[in-house]
Amino acid sequence: MCIRDRAPGVRLAAYKVFDRYHYTDPETGQEYDDVGAWDGPIFEAIVDAANHGFDVINMSLGGTLDTRSREDVAAMVAWDRVMKYANRKGTIIVASAGNSAENANGPVVHIPSDLPTVLSVSATGTATPLWQYPYPTDATLNALPGQDVLAFYSNYGAAVNLAAPGGDCGLDESGKSWCARPRSKRPAGYRYHLILSTVIVNEATPAYAWYGGTSMASPHVAAVAALVKALHKDWDPGRVRAHLEATAEDIGSRQLFGHGLVDADRATR
Q1: Measured distance CA(144)–CA(251) in Å, rounded
Q2: Predicted TM-score (pTM) of this structure
Q3: Would you state the pLDDT for residue 3?
């Protein structure tokens, strides 16, 4: 099913919140060039989208705050206010749960996904791949029913609302992810467990690449939320959220998968 089949009028907008920055480590004196997103530009983008009446925001980004730190608690309050503002405007926010394989039930929280008005999405992989041959030229990879597992990198905890495919490398004979091994030690075809994603190879060359992450899982849920809104234009974010949770496929622990694997078919019937 294509989004355009059920939501023919859906439109996309992108906000640039990431920038390059340069800094010097005060302890080592080493200089670094990096890429990051700061709270101010992110807040401005969310408020602008909400003010323009956008129904769904996907946030495949995030960071951690420590609730034992006064400064971090102040930052969390600011984030929470912005999320609640968007929610009151009718915008549902979907965010990736994070890729640190951490339990979010402790003092360290992942922002924005752990905030109460945000739909937090963990990532799944499959324990048993189902290859459809002939291989390798025409082979396709599907997941056997009932073989969903939490991706080895995915955060988890009570804040998780839903799960979606995020990419993994499958499990080795000991039950550990092949992705935890160096690429040279992984089996041929491991990349087919991952999510085909757009990537900028350099400033002039957009391309596709295989990636894994909760950043790949979150857009699945955001897209289904858009489908639901297209069918039920009068639903507020709370009702969309409840509907996605009620129609999700139960695949195990609530701590790992929330209410389950997002199900576009059931959500749009």
Answers
A1: 13
A2: 0.86
A3: 46
